[in-house]
Amino acid sequence: MTHSSHDSDPDLLFACYASYNARFLQAMANLPALKPWLEPDRAAIREQVRTCLGIEDRLYPVVSGVKGRTVRKPGYTVELLQAESWPGVRCCANLYKPSAPAGAPIPLVVLCCGHGAGGKLNPGYQAMAARLARQGAAVLVPDNIGQGERVAMGHHHPVTPFACGLTIQGLIVMETIAWLRWAKALPDIDNTRLAAIGNSGGGTLTLFLAALCPELAVLSSSGYPSTFEWIVRKEKKHCHCNLLPGIVGKLEMWQILSVFAPRPLFIFQGSEDHLFPEDLFYMVARQVGFAYAKAGAPDRFRFASIPGPHPWFNAKRYQLASFLAETLGLDPAEELSDDVLETLGPEETCYPIWPSDALTVDELAVRLSGRHPAPGLSLWDVYPPKCPLPDLPCPGLRGDHRQVFAQYEAFLGQSGDEPEPAF
């Protein structure tokens, strides 16, 4: 539908918002009352997660061809690893290991990176990994698709995966599980003591691992637990790894996290986190706590709002390290004035030069799906808004109306039984 008169644009904009508000309210009113402490509902939650993320068993990769070099640090070593996940997809990870005599198998922690600058080389992630290695754990820190050393793959903006029926987050989840399965096969890893932790974008990833990774014994998700409905309403361009098609009105975060029961779970955030409201965090904590109680494991769930901002900082890392010490049998966490002690140098990377023949995320999506979308697609081509797009400038805003409304459509999903709005 086209409109020639710019005089009507403000009215159109308000009509669009009214339409989306009604659709969000209807979607949330229809949210299934799934009870994560009941096995049939747990299975339904897992299946809905797979559907929203575009995950199928046949799509999981196998990490292979792993090679690298070792860097020695006080109390631990770091293996800088190159590998392949899907054929043609280059991946990389740092594997921290305690400098201790060979003996009993050691626990493994997968540290899931968020959007911190530098990916696995971000000082905050390095400090967390070093802490845990000095406490006696192996820590695997992969670079997600399109992050860290893998920026050439694309991460923030790709649209082709969605046109192929996939999602960027789903690809990241599958590759992370493949890394875990590779690491748990190492001879010095204790398969009964596997954990995953992550903040912000890593909190998103660990949220989904709660439902899709039965190998895990312990989990922590931070800087993300809230509600999908609140996240999608943000007036900004989301990183495309945040887009979860059709999840609004189908699932909420507390249900997914609760599937992890009765295994130990720790969620937390900064009390001054401006990205995720503290009130929503406490609501989720109450809901997950109730589910853990219904599952007969109230003492295996804990939560905390820690004074400070959104990223991991020393006090957060100490509390997380203390939780893992208790649940994985590690040495006690150290209280340090500053735990960013020694870090890898910028030259200590897995790939000196990113391979020119490595697949991008768009190329991977085409190979996995067999579809060939038109080049140069915008998100609103894949998820066209069900309302006229007002021709209004957006000075100072964090994404134009087309992007924001397309994100709304993605999160709401394509439902053929929705009435078309009248304009």
CATH class of the largest domain: Alpha Beta
Write out the CATH superfamily name of the largest domain. Alpha/Beta hydrolase fold, catalytic domain
Strand content: 15-25%
Q: What radius of gyration results from the CA coordinates?
A: 22 Å
Summarize the structure.
With 423 residues, the protein is of the alpha/beta class. The protein has helices at residues 9-29, 39-53, 123-134, 160-163, 168-184, 201-212, 228-232, 253-258, 278-294, 314-328, 361-369, 379-382, 401-412, and strands spanning 64-73, 76-84, 90-98, 106-112, 138-142, 189-199, 218-222, 265-270, 301-306. Strand 2 (76-84) and strand 3 form a beta hairpin.
Characterization of this structure:
The chain is α/β, with parallel strands linked by helices. It has two domains: about 1-30 and about 380-423, no CATH class; about 55-360, Rossmann fold. It has 13 helices and nine strands. The chain has a nine-stranded mixed sheet with strand order 1-2-3-5-4-6-7-8-9, with helices on both faces.
Indicate the topology:
Blueprint: H1 9-29, H2 39-53, E1 64-73, E2 76-84, E3 90-98, E4 106-112, H3 123-134, E5 138-142, H4 160-163, H5 168-184, E6 189-199, H6 201-212, E7 218-222, H7 228-232, H8 253-258, E8 265-270, H9 278-294, E9 301-306, H10 314-328, H11 361-369, H12 379-382, H13 401-412
Parallel strand pairs: 4-5, 4-6, 6-7, 7-8, 8-9
Antiparallel strand pairs: 1-2, 2-3, 3-5
Helix pairs in contact: 3-10
